[in-house]
Amino acid sequence: MSKVIVVGGGPSGMMAALAASKNNHEVILIERNEELGKKLKVTGGGRCNITNNREIEDFFEKVVTNRKFLYSSFYTFTNTDLLSYFESNNLEYKIEKHNDYKVYTKSDKSEEVIDTLKNDLIKNKVKILYNKKVVNLIIENKAIKGVKIEDGEKILGDKVIISTGGKSYPHTGSDGMMYDILKNHHTLNKIYPALTPLTVKEAWIKNLQGISMQNVEIYCKIKKKKISKTGDMLFAHFGLTGPCVLKLSSHITKYISENELELNIDFLPSKTNEEISNIIRGNPNKNVINNLKGLLPQNFSKEIFNLLSLTDKKANELSKADELKIVEYIKCMKLTCNGTKGIKTSQVTCGGISVKEIDSSTMESKIIKNLFFTGEVIDIDAETGGYNLQIAFSTGYLAGISV
């Protein structure tokens, strides 16, 4: 039996502590906050998108950074295994098939997930230390021996699992402080915001603030490679946000940190140019914006007319040239993305400890013996849809059974 120290009481840390304790290890879980799962509590708007109900094989295409690294983790503890775990602990959940097969608690309360994990930790005699901030690692002869706490206390152990998260949502305690400690021993890949709103150069974008658009396609090209995402989006005074935008952001965040990028938005990807033209002309005695009412929000259509310096008129009075301009704008609005809203507003961190220095089959450091990593502290991230939480649970479980 080993003495295992887990640093960080988020989803990956709690799962690591549980897996280790169920393997008959003595486990101490150190949490810097006064409660467990503080970031988990606010995910999914408080609903907590636990995982996704797609086949585990489909998860890899949703991973943005270092997907191959996750093979052992995902297959050792799958989404099915996770849901079975919650079932066995009487947590009821629901699968929203209409919403990309996302899985939520039946009550839509993230607290239920936290309570389930916490009760299981207590049941398995995990010692939880609250309001304890780890400020350094105790390393001798390239082997971990324990951790140092802010008040000068030393906690010694045989194995240490780092589950401290990234830099997103810093108010929850996930402020990236552990990176400053770890970079003395490991390669730290540059940190970028992921799943974050995008800023846009065009000043007129603020005129569209608050307009929500459903099922759009946003695409761009980086070094001749086309990146395309579909889903809902929302115009904001600074640019763009919403599920489709957040997904796209993770794929372009490194590029736009130093470059501007042209975004193309197709607001009606299910309609051809010809079909939109027919709708515009649908009722010749009605105004064009009225004809488009069933397809697009009226305030959006009005702004398109303003941008094109057009006056709304009856369809039979609209010139063919102006009709083509309208259709072109609906099918391919061009915007200049010049950045993101930053790490504090991002849902996930891109970057972190290099996967080249971690054994993917155990999550143990290749540099420091008996030191393990889980979750967002590692340079791995995925799109929205429950995939990042599954990464947390899977890597946490694998580390926990490997100590």
Write a brief structural summary.
29% of the residues lie in helices and 27% in strands. The chain is built from twelve helices and 21 strands. Keywords: FAD, Flavoprotein.
Question: Which characteristics define this entry?
Answer:
five-stranded parallel beta sheet; single chain; 27% strand; BaiN-like; FAD/NAD(P)-binding domain; flavoprotein; alpha+beta; 403 residues
What can you see in these coordinates?
The protein has 403 residues and is α+β, with helices and mostly antiparallel strands. The protein folds into two domains: 3-192 and 348-402, FAD/NAD(P)-binding domain, CATH 3.50.50; 198-340, no CATH class. It has helices at residues 11-21, 38-42, 71-76, 79-88, 110-123, 177-182, 243-256, 273-280, 288-291, 298-307, 320-331, 387-402; strands at residues 3-7, 26-30, 51-52, 63-65, 93-96, 102-105, 127-129, 134-140, 143-149, 154-156, 159-162, 188-194, 198-200, 212-222, 225-235, 239-241, 261-266, 333-340, 348-353, 371-373, 381-382. Strands 13-16-15-14-17-18 form a six-stranded antiparallel β-barrel. A five-stranded parallel β-sheet has the order 7-2-1-11-20, with helices on one face. Strand 15 (225-235) and strand 16 form a beta hairpin. Helix 1 (11-21) runs parallel beside helix 12. It is elongated, with a radius of gyration of 24 Å. The protein starts with a strand and ends with a helix. Pfam families: HI0933_like, HI0933_like_1st. Its cofactor is FAD. Residues 192-348 form the RsdA/BaiN/AoA(So)-like insert domain. This is NAD(P)/FAD-dependent oxidoreductase.
